[in-house]
Amino acid sequence: MRRTRILTAVLALAAGLLAGTPPALATADAPAAPAPLAAESYTWRNARVDGGGFVPGIVFNRKEKNLAYARTDIGGAYRWQESSRTWTPLLDSVGWNEWGHTGVVSLASDPVDPNKVFAAVGTYTNGWDPTNGAVLRSADRGASWQKTDLPFKLGGNMPGRGMGERLAVDPNKDSVLYLGAPSGKGLWRSTDSGVTWSQVTNFPNVGTYAQDPSDTSGYASDNQGIVWVTFDESTGTAGSATKTIYVGVADQGNAVYRSTDAGATWSRLAGQPTGYLAHKGVLDAVNGYLYLAYSDKGGPYDGGKGRLYRYATATGTWTDISPVAEADTYYGFSGLTVDRQHPGTVMATAYSSWWPDTQIFRSTNSGGTWTKAWDYSSYPNRDNRYTMDVSSVPWLTWGANPSPPEQTPKLGWMTEALEIDPFNSDRMMYGTGATIYGTEDLTKWDSGAKFTVRPMVQGLEETAVNDLASPPSGAPLLSALGDIGGFRHTDLTKVPAMMYTSPNFTTTTSLDYAEKDPNTVVRVGDQDSGPHVAFSTDNGANWFAGTDPSGVSGGGTVAAAADGSRFVWSPQGTGVQYTTGFGSSWSASSGIPAGAVVESDRVDPKTFYGFKSGKFYVSSDGGATFTASAATGLPSGDSVRFKALPGTKGDVWLAGGASDGAYGLWHSTDSGATFTKLSGVEQADTIGFGKAAAGASYQTLYTSAKIGGVRGIFRSTDKGASWTRINDDAHQWGWTGGAITGDPRVYGRVYVATNGRGIVYGDTSDTGGGSGGGGGTDPTPTPTGACTVTYKVTNQWSGGFQADVQLTNSGSSAWTGWSLGWTFADGQKVSQVWNAEHTQTGAAVTVKNVGWNAGVAAGSSVGFGFTGSWSGTNTKPTAFTLGDRTCTTG
């Protein structure tokens, strides 16, 4: 039952299969508009949740200390930043037309040149993903990428995505790479560092296993193919291709193959166990052992039986080293790692054990004997070798109070990624369906002392966002999320203490607040049992469940009356319903079809709106009856989102469409009786409102759209007459068609829903605004008083480095803007700055504040960071100037 509940959530929303699956992309059929102007500088960050999705892979570089990467199934790839102990996103540049490339099926860090990293990308192998897969390659640790398109699809969010790694770099000759393909496409090889690829035509097995061959969607019925590649580095020398290569295949009878001649010929490994899939194959070249983690299913959520095996590479001897008897397994093994400092130490996970918890196993004698992370002292009581500290991400308890042997927080589930730091035996990280956990005192396990497990996930944001609201008072942001429900953010820079509870929806599909009473909030969502609607009277801080009308099977969409006196709900499974009060009973609305999207007028509490299949519907009696509008020319499909403008009755904006029909942005000022299509907007998928610009009489509009032939996030301060693109090519986040809203209290702030990169919000450096959202910035005032600067290089590699700068106002008066200058002595070049703007002329660098960090009180500090290039030497600047004064260096 529990597996079914979680499986449903994974397939439905968090993994982006249903509500999160972007529609087919369109070609423009609207009149050409002038190219949108470049915006003033925007700073983009995440509203912190920390995690929230499945992390199927963690990869440490084995040549350079502290260089690690994580891959996610729908949210891109990340690089570990040791100085801040955070993760840096690497694939935010993926754009709308290639949204599938945010799914990362495998990742490889070059063991010869640590600057190089490779990612195999693509989200679905069936028709849900319109593009083929690709291999991305970077020579600067993921700061920039080059791409090679593949002639087949890849499945970062397909069954079997936790197996791997499917992409591998030859540790002796790093121009050689291998990639295991799904869908019967076989094994592929590159001999030019990932630039070109060709199939290894003599590889004998393309895989046979599918999770559910009868699935007509092509999702569960896809052949999971070639699932990992492992080199035996001891069989090669630097500059020559490694001779012995092991390959894992999704075939329960023929799971492991080997080449001993650098890939010229291949054969099935003799004597191997059958009846299982080899999820991982990890080689200990020092002791000559290939370790294999087996499961009867492909994962990441299924698996009923499993084994661990050790293969002696010199003798061909197979040894079953499983820590428990097969009859005692109700899970498969997947997570698998070797301590490179002490190669006899091996660890593995029971990845599919949901109840009562996952299990982690550890051996210090090459699998001869094992100990467990937890065991029963006397059932149902547990004796844990660890303590868990989730104070940095407190929602990981899910607000639960389970009975033994369950505990909260759990060690995890879907634990297919498990890695011991190759340079530090005390550090281990592992991925779950919700986060990355880690420890830095792992060897206490062996002495009998308890090691501490903590989230190590800050910076990695992987939620799929279904809806967003920014009320005029109370919390600045309310969110509806897949898998973990959603949050009330009172501080965007801090992780909220808990997701919505009482009730807990696995996925929240829609939420709304009463415009004139923002303390009244409603949300609807999905769960296996219990009500699908909840209400709050304190701005989302606390909740109570409503009552479902008969037939409800899912959340759908919901709307709150402007005064909070009534609600209209369009759930899955039955028709549109309305209620007065807080949903103790519901009545069927008439005149509107089931499945319609519903919204409320933000002024008149009796007026509600709906849309379904090209028709707009209006109710003037609180949702009891709806009448179809006579408006024509609206999108015929159901990929539509619309909103009513706060403060003006009957002012409605509608965005949506599809490539085979109407697509764009429409505006009505008469409650939907008529709509006017904005001629300059070729495509639009969301619409939201925020605080009006200075001097403007109309609220600021925000949309995820295609305008002037460019896809992006756009803003208008003149009622849609002109638009400014406010993101850039480095900040695209794949598909952004779920939801958007401005902030009614902060001009220029916009919240953007992504499908796997969490809630992104942007702040403008333009504090006043202007026509068309352009607006200039005033010259930065010259601060007065003393200043102190601390400049620290936090990471350095061949040809590149990263630095953090802290500027302190050590005077007695506050600053309302700042501009810091310095000169590089060795020709260094700044390439990217965050939390500030910069210019560089020759050796001279000037860094200025952005809008949100212009004010610096006396005694306070402001920080920014940057990456840059260098050659020869990388001498730190010795002098910093703030206006006409020289700062003290700290």
UniProtKB/TrEMBL annotation:
- InterPro entries given for it? CBD2 (IPR001919), CBM2/CBM3_carb-bd_dom_sf (IPR008965), CBM2_carb-bd_dom_sf (IPR012291), WD40/YVTN_repeat-like_dom_sf (IPR015943), Xyloglucanase_GH74 (IPR052025)
Entries under SUPFAM superfamilies matching the protein: Carbohydrate-binding domain, Oligoxyloglucan reducing end-specific cellobiohydrolase
Record's superkingdom?
Answer: Bacteria
Return the annotated region ranges for Disordered: 762-783
Q: Which residues form the CBM2 domain?
A: 780-890
Q: List the keywords (alphabetical).
A: Carbohydrate metabolism, Cellulose degradation, Glycosidase, Hydrolase, Polysaccharide degradation, Signal
Biased composition (Gly residues) is annotated at 767-777
Of which family is this protein a member? Belongs to the glycosyl hydrolase 74 family.
Q: What is this protein called?
A: Xyloglucanase
The source organism is Streptomyces lasalocidi (Streptomyces lasaliensis)
Q: What is the lineage of its organism?
A: Bacteria, Bacillati, Actinomycetota, Actinomycetes, Kitasatosporales
